[in-house]
Amino acid sequence: MTDPTKLDAWGALSQLARTDGQKHLRDLFAEDEGRFERFSYEAAGLFLDASKTRVTPAVTDALLALAEQAGVEKKRRGMFSGEAINGTEGRAVLHVALRDNRTGKYSVDGEDILPGILDVRERMKAFTDAVTSGERKGATGKPLTTVVNIGIGGSDLGPVMVTEALRPYHLEGREVHYVSNVDGTHLSEVLRQVDPETTLFCIASKTFTTQETMTNAQSARDWFLKSGRSEADIAKHFVALSTNHQATSEFGIDSDNVFGFWDWVGGRYSLWSAIGLPIALTVGWDAFEDLLSGAHAMDRHFEEAPAAENLPMMMGLIGLWHRTFLDMPAVACLPYDQSLLRLPAYLQQADMESNGKGRRTDGSKVDYETGPIVFGEPGTNGQHAFYQLIHQGTTEMLCEFIAPAVSHNPLGDHHEKLLANFLAQPEALMVGVTEEEAFSQLKEQGESDEEANRLKGHKAFPGNRPSISILMQKLTPETLGALIALYEHKIFVQGAVWGVNSYDQFGVELGKVLAKPILAELKGEADADHDRSTSGLIARIRSLRAG
Ligand code: F6P
């Protein structure tokens, strides 16, 4: 793996960061009437305007040169052709195959993986249809109208986010709950609301060893049995979504009730696999297929469109420019759509677990900034919370605004108001207000010179704060699929340039390992040595629990 800082284009971009990167967006728009057209991109039902980011034609040219010199297209071919691009784990990365139907296109170790994919998809479809039609019943003969999905991370966030986003497509009479946290409150609150006779539990875990999921699954099983049901009834009420068939059978789930997937599907890229079953059970099979085809349309675009017109490529490169060359530490995900409520949480895992890395694939240390901090909230709620810092704080960041032009819930002029905010915020971030303008405005409001001088700094906005706007006609299963795939590929592009492995997650391991002896200590089964702070806190917790 080449150190990307040694590439010619990296040097050119470092220079540009001191020149073009410092230009004010107001001036860039004044200089170039074609800026909006020049820096907007379109594919698979999504329109992306990047003209309010701090790029110039020289910058995008250099970014494209960087992508070429870093071998992004070659790496993309490697991903699509099933190379083990997840080198630390020796795995291919083929979530794209899960939303495709092309025989012979994807193989792992020389074997076409499509038949296996289609087989699971067929079983998921048959199961979904049987449950949603009421043909498949619970142990007491009642239809299974409620799904409780137990999973965490990639086995939770994708399905939760999509389920929420597709609310207008929910089949009538179906209820779904997601339990992820090992905090007993999460499961207890859900179990309080559901009826064991009509509930289907989906135990979603790629490894089927994750502490949180296994603990919740075991407690759900105990609750089910305590409600008067027998071990034999488990088969009617528990299914597993997993790659670990041995562990699912040890848990007591028979193989007919296991929907499998493969190690070439990363957890945070798995909503397209059997992990998507709770989505299908809520919106029906056809809508789930539409989600897959929306993602596939974006895959085709990513694979085939020239780099300069390629939406994920350009979004990835422009994001990387702001992160690495303009040193902006964060990306704010700002969906102006209430049903995308969980998108920021989903993207936190997708992006931060993928690109929060400090080593290149060959193990060498990076000495440049990689994955950003991702956070966000749906608009307009975020406006009344953290936008103050985005507008006037000392930290600059890239904002990503997302909105559908048409609402599923037309109600008076709500949607026009929502869209007005979706448009006004990026405009405000870009243009800002100078101190002179603030002074004039204060004077127009009747303030004295003294008062206007006192307040003008507080009322000024620096502007020049970059944002991307993503627009779609309506949030449908297809456009949602395309949006998620766009982000997946954006993350790929950035990881490919930084030279990191976007598909492992060793950073989550250490805490898990350390929690094991602590658990034994909290249960009074063992003692262990820790730093003084951890030991002090353990002692304090013990005494608080002792009352
Ligand atoms: O957080 C670490 C992680 O391994 C994620 O990558 C994964 O999505 C999550 O745990 C859940 O893992 P599993 O599906 O194996 O339970």
TrEMBL record:
EC code: 5.3.1.9
Entry keywords, A to Z: Cytoplasm, Gluconeogenesis, Glycolysis, Isomerase
InterPro entries from the UniProt entry: G6P_Isomerase, G6P_Isomerase_C, Phosphoglucose_isomerase_CS, SIS_dom_sf, SIS_PGI_1, SIS_PGI_2
Gene3D superfamilies: 1.10.1390.10, Glucose-6-phosphate isomerase like protein, domain 1
Function: Catalyzes the reversible isomerization of glucose-6-phosphate to fructose-6-phosphate.
Family note: Belongs to the GPI family.
NCBIfam families cross-referenced by the UniProt entry: PRK00179.1 (NF001211)
Name of this chain's protein: Glucose-6-phosphate isomerase
Organism listed in the record: Parvularcula mediterranea
Organism ancestry: Bacteria, Pseudomonadati, Pseudomonadota, Alphaproteobacteria, Parvularculales
Gene designation per UniProt: pgi
